[in-house]
Automatic annotation (TrEMBL):
Protein name, as recorded: V4R domain-containing protein
GO molecular function, one term: DNA-binding transcription factor activity
Residue span, 4-vinyl reductase 4VR domain: 198-260
UniProt region (Disordered), positions on chain: 1-20
Domain HTH arsR-type as annotated: residue spans: 27-108
Length: 263
């Protein structure tokens, strides 16, 4: 064991449930929020290690560590080779590197403090306040393991149904222009049409996810519901807004492909 190491590794290792780590790999960025995997990768980030060393540093059962190592290897984050001193053992190593760590609580607290510090009676921005409030609720529920996506999608569909008459236009280009104007006027983001076939929309400064932690998964279930309902009414045919890029996936925009049932 290296000097200064306890059974569970060095002080200051990633703290479970407080941070999210972003690693680069040959296959692209990978987001890690599982505490066991974060501890394994933190150990390998220091240097290559044998299986026994990883188990000792992580402080979990061998079977648990073995399963996580296999899954990390399957997604291309961890590699292994024979130990030159003992061919019966494997030496594990990272295939990429740690890019960043994000602490949602610290970031959120900082943004709230900045807003409160800049606030003056009559000069507050209600849109910014409600966006902070929305983000606070999302992050709190995410940390409790509560997934809101199905509920947000249904709520978005309801909003889209009610909103459609105000934006309706038989011409798809004009319809998209009215959607973009509504999004901008209501501080929901800046909408651009990337292409027509399939119809693909880009949303910048998305109110729903621009400030959420990077998780590697789409986070705009509410927007997807609204857009799905709008285009279902527009085409008079069941449509879905499939999010293929998102701020929470590490992009600087969200991307929605409008797909029609049966297409």
């Amino acid at each position: 064991m290296e000097p200064g190491m306890g059974v569970r590794g060095r002080p200051g290792r990633p703290k479970p449930k407080q941070e999210i780590d972003l690693y680069s790999t040959p296959e692209g960025a990978q987001v890690i929020d599982n505490p066991v995997r974060r501890a394994i990768l933190a150990a390998l980030h220091e240097r290559e290690r044998t299986f026994e060393e990883v188990v000792l540093l992580v402080g979990r059962a061998k079977s648990t560590v073995s399963v996580h190592l296999q899954e990390l290897a399957a997604v291309g984050m961890v590699g292994s080779r024979a130990d030159p001193d003992d061919s019966r053992r494997k030496v594990f190593y990272l295939t990429g590197d740690l890019v960043a760590s994000l602490s949602p609580e610290e970031r959120l607290a900082g943004d709230l403090a900045a807003y409160a510090g800049a606030y003056r009676p009559g000069m507050g921005d209600p849109f910014e306040f409600y966006r902070l409030a929305f983000r606070t609720i999302r992050i709190a529920l995410m940390h409790e393991g509560i997934v809101l996506d199905p509920l947000l999608t249904r709520a978005g569909k309801g909003v889209g149904e009610e909103l459609y008459p105000a934006l309706a236009n038989p011409d798809t280009e004009h319809f998209c222009t009215k959607i973009a104007r509504f999004w901008e006027e209501h501080h929901l983001g800046r909408v651009e049409v990337e292409r027509q076939d399939p119809l693909t929309l880009l949303v910048y400064d998305c109110f729903e996810c621009a400030d959420l932690p990077v998780t590697g998964r789409p986070a705009c279930a509410f927007d997807s519901g609204i857009l799905g309902a709008l285009f279902s009414r527009h085409y008079n045919r069941s449509a879905a807004a499939i999010e293929t890029r998102c701020y929470s996936m590490g992009f600087d925009h969200c991307r929605f492909e409008i797909t029609l049932e049966g297409s």
